[in-house]
Amino acid sequence: MSYTTKAKFCATCANWGGDRKVNIHGAAETAGPDTSGKCFVGAKSNPCAGHGTTCAKYRKWAAVK
Q1: pTM of the entire structure?
Q2: What CA–CA distance (Å, rounded) separates 1 from 56?
Q3: Do the Cβ atoms of 20 and 6 come closer than 8 Å?
Q4: Alpha carbon distances (Å) from 40 to 23, 26, 43
Q5: What is the pLDDT of residues 8-56, one digit of tens each?
Q6: In terms of C-beta density within 10 A (0-12 exposed, 13-18 middle, 19 or more buried), how is residue 39 classed?
Q7: Contact yes or no for 33/50 (Cβ under 8 A)
Q8: Is 11 helix (H, G, I), strand (E, B) or coil?
Q9: How many CB atoms lie within 10 A of CB 7?
């Protein structure tokens, strides 16, 4: 599953510790929509999901365009 930075999802956030990579288009890519990871700033009480989740502590991951 790929995510552009047009939407502030956990998968494109610098504070997110989920498994991801940058694809050839410069978007964040996860193994699938259920990929999860820990939020390093504690913005969420539960682990962030890579999709459809956003928060006020979002910081764009520098690796994505």
Answers
A1: 0.78
A2: 23
A3: no
A4: 23, 23, 8
A5: 888 899 998 989 999 999 999 999 888 888 888 875 555 565 555 567 7
A6: buried
A7: yes
A8: helix
A9: 11
